[in-house]
Structure formats: structure tokens, C-alpha cells
Amino acid sequence: MKETKYHSYVVGELPEGCKLCVNGAKLVLFTTGICPRECFYCPLSPWRREDVSYANERPIKNVNDIIEEAKIQEALGAGVTGGDPLSRIDRTVKYIRTLKENFGKRFHIHLYTTGLLATKENLEKLYNAGLDEIRFHPDIFNPNSNIFQKEIENIKGAFDFEWDIGGEVPAVPGQEERIKWYAEFLDKQGAKFLNINELEFSETNLDALLSRGLRTVSDESSAIKGSLKSGLTILEWGEKNTSLNYHLCTAKLKDAIQLKNRLKRMAKNVARPYMEITQDGTLKFAVAEYENLMELYDLLVNDAKVPEEWLYLNLKKRRIEMPIEVAEELVDAIEGDVKFYVVEEYPTWDRIEVERIPLL
User: What are the Radical SAM core domain coordinates in residue numbering (predicted)?
Assistant: First the structure.
């Protein structure tokens, strides 16, 4: 077992999908929020627990949205997720085919599924569409349920196809023996890897995790206390007792590495000339806000003599965007109720604002 430069831990090799993911090169293709299971640790936000589709943060209205988002990200692959993508199998297959047709066979696509809907027919559809890697997440923490037994039988059927097969489960403290059982099952079937994710609190799983006595490692972190240790225990055991590759994906990897690298890839393709790209891949620029934007725009161009190419009238957010240096010169020169700010945003479709500092 060794620690990677991505703040994660690995036994053997990283799965192909993970290699691209840690570099921010995987499009997150959320095909539906519908899922046949209700896992107590599911972190999915309320608005995504419906039959909705997203390419990263962009809502999908048609397949062109997927293509556009992949181009902006300069994606080299996609991770198909949900919900359970197999809940809307024809939509999922359509999206996979679209990506392969537009970006070629080398565009690597992996998919997550519970296994419950992984019938022979559905698996064949995915394989024929060009899926490269499939990751199963059965209900291993409820081994006596009928759902779990069906999932296990369906997983066995996936080995009739020539693609990479693995498992992916959260490191739930106290459930190490169940994860070990799953690792042995995968190893016996001939799977390639088992990914283990550090468990985290979210808005939707908070009560369920607290009721089970789970707590965060600190007030500043969403990671569950004991989850990382649990995952490391599995990797140490797995290295000695199975032939699987293992990857322990930490909360720090997701926040400090994967997301940042994806933002950097996107920022250079969406940044306007007046925007600065920060080390974290966010966009930094200045804005002016005023009740009558057209009046303000006319004032800046005709009276303050600001070149029009330095200004962007953003009617949707009701502001005028500009270089920070320009705003710093204008803040003392423009009288009235005009307010100037330096803002920092994600370069994503939803342009989430992460910081706003008033210029005084």
C-alpha cells in the first residue's frame, strides 16, 4: 500500500477511470436521480433525487449540452452516475453512444450501478454502446435482503463481457467485515479492483449518520471520524489476502485535487479577457451594480471613457463586469449609489460565487 500524490491510498494500480478523474479530465455525467435503493449514507442533494440529468453542473436538455460541456472541460472521459443510471437505461445508453461517436473510442467511460437493474439485457446494451468500465455498489450492509441477493447474481453476469469490472463502496466504520466479504467475492469472480470512499456528511444523510453514532473528524470537515482508518484497514488486509487493486479515495482528494483540476481545465476555456484565473481554477474580476444598468453603462463608456471591450453587460445577474484594475480607478470617480465589488466564481455552468469583496 502506498499514498498517492492525490492524498489517496492505493494497492496495485489506479483504475483507468480514476487516473483521469484525479486530473480533472472526467466529465461527471449524471443521467438520473432515480434509484431502486435508499442507502442511509447517500449524499445526493434533494434536487437531484428526481429524474433529472446533468453534465457536471449543466442541466441536460439535449445531447448537445453534453458535448458542449465535455469540450469546455477538455474531458478525456466520463463517469456515468446517479441515482442508478440503469434506472433510465435507454437514456444512459444514448448518452454513452453520443460521447463515443463525438470523441472516439479512446474517450474512457465508466459507470456506477447498484447492480439490482444489471440484467443481462441491460448489461449487453451498455457493452454495445461502448462502456469501458463498470463499478458495482451492491447493498453489502444488508446481506440478508432479497435485493442484495439479486444484485450479487447480476454482478456475476457482468463477467460475460470484456470490460473492466470493479466495486465501489463507502468505508463505513464498524462494517469492515462486510467490505472484506465483498472484496473476496469480487476477487473470486475475477474483478480488477475495489474502490473505497471515505464517508462524508451531507445535507441529506446527516440525520441518518448521526443516529448511528457517526461524527465528523472536526468542525471544519465533512469527513466521518473513523472512515479513513477503516479504509486503510481494508487496504492492508486486501493487499495480503486478495489479488485486487484497491483505491481509497479520500475527502481531501475530491475537494483539493479532483475539483480543482477540473475547474482549471474549464477556466481557460470560459474566462473572458477581463477575468483572472486563480491557482484554484476560479475566475476573479470586478463588477459594478446599479439600479439602472443601461444608464450606468452609458456613463462608463461616454463620461468615464472606459473602452467598451473592457466591459460586459450581464443582464442575467444585473451587473457590469470589468477588470479589477478598472474598477479600482472608477470607485472614487463615480458618484451616486454605484457599488463596486471584486468577485470570485467557479467557471462552471452555474457560476457559483465563492467570494465577494466590496471596493471602497
Answer: 20-227
Is the pLDDT score of 122 beyond 90?
yes
**32-57: per-residue pLDDT in tens?**
999 999 999 999 999 999 999 999 99
Residue appearing with cell numbers 452555474:
350
pLDDT at 259: 93
pLDDT for 87 beyond 90: yes
The C-alpha atoms of residue 32 and residue 88 are separated, in whole angstroms, by 7
Nearest CA-CA partner of 33 in 59, 62, 7, 2? 59
CA 312 from chain centre, in angstroms, equals 30
Please state, as a whole number, how many other Cβ atoms lie within 10 Å of the Cβ of residue 176. 16
Identify whether the C-beta of residue 77 lies closer than 8 Å to the C-beta of residue 100: no
Question: Distance (Å, rounded) from C-alpha 177 to C-alpha 175?
Answer: 6
**Whether the model pTM is above 0.70:** yes
Residue-wise pLDDT tens digits, 185-228: 999 999 999 999 999 999 999 999 999 999 999 888 899 999 99
The rounded distance, in Å, linking the Cα atoms of 24 and 131 is 20
* Separation between Cα atoms, residue 281 and residue 341, nearest integer Å: 20
Residue 170, pLDDT score:
97
Inter-CA distances, 312 with 181, 294, 305, Å = 58, 12, 15
7 SS3 class? coil
Alpha-carbon span 47 to 185, nearest angstrom? 35
How far apart are alpha carbons 356 and 339 in whole angstroms? 12
Check: CATH 3.20.20.70 for 2-266?
A: yes
* Secondary element (H or E) of residue 124: helix 120-129
Going by C-alpha positions, the residue among 166, 179, 167 that lies closest to residue 236 is 179
Q: Which three cell numbers stand for residue 81?
A: 452516475
Report the first-to-last Cα separation within the chain, whole angstroms: 53
Q: For residue 157, is pLDDT > 90?
A: yes
Q: What is the rounded distance in angstroms from the CA atom of residue 155 to the CA atom of residue 146?
A: 14
Whether the Cβ atoms of residue 199 and residue 172 lie closer than 8 Å to each other: yes
Q: Are 328 and 312 in contact (CB under 8 A)?
A: no
Inter-residue contact 288 to 314 (CB < 8 Å) = no
